[in-house]
Fold:
Amino acid sequence: MLIGILQTGLAPDALAPEMGDYPDMFARLLDGHGFTFRTWKVVEGEFPPSVDAADGWLITGSRHGVYEDHPWIPPLEDFIRAAFAARVPVVGICFGHQIVAQAMGGKVERYAGGWAVGATDYDFGGETLRLNAWHRDQVVEAPEGATVIASNDFCANAALLYDDRALTVQAHPEFRPEFVDGLMKTRGKGVVPDAVMAEAATRLDLPLQDKTMAARIAAFFKKPRA
Structure:
């Protein structure tokens, strides 16, 4: 099964040589589930020829906001709606979670409550999954037709399911602790409050349920569809 990765951001130059770029992280996360991958850098204006160019689509995280004025954001929203119409499965992570919600009529904004950074617990219908987070923006209004499947006190719409068409997650299951540590030392300085990063640093060694989330993503992609 070919998964097309729609890359909407770039890993920091200081971290990518050792830890890989975002597509590398997703290939590593989903290793063993029988997928092959091809990347389109939509952040640089590179788009697939059609929604049928892959069997499923994965939209990455980004340092950009979905509400910002970038020339590649409107065509990405069009692509998402076309994938929905064609029932080609879409998975969105962080920025991907937010851009799917925005494309389908939801609302995303910079959250007044601040940042979520590092190992964070989410309630997935009674099952707690701990995943790494790195975000300030949030989906504050889920689109019509989306079901909330995960939340916590900080993030009400932490994961959304759009029947068999899209599965989106605010957290970053692809981020390893060392990458979060690197983000705090590069992009975090002067942007994320020091106290938030200091607290996140104390949780770097906590076990994560990234493999559990990977299995859920894989099962969603592989779900039989008409």
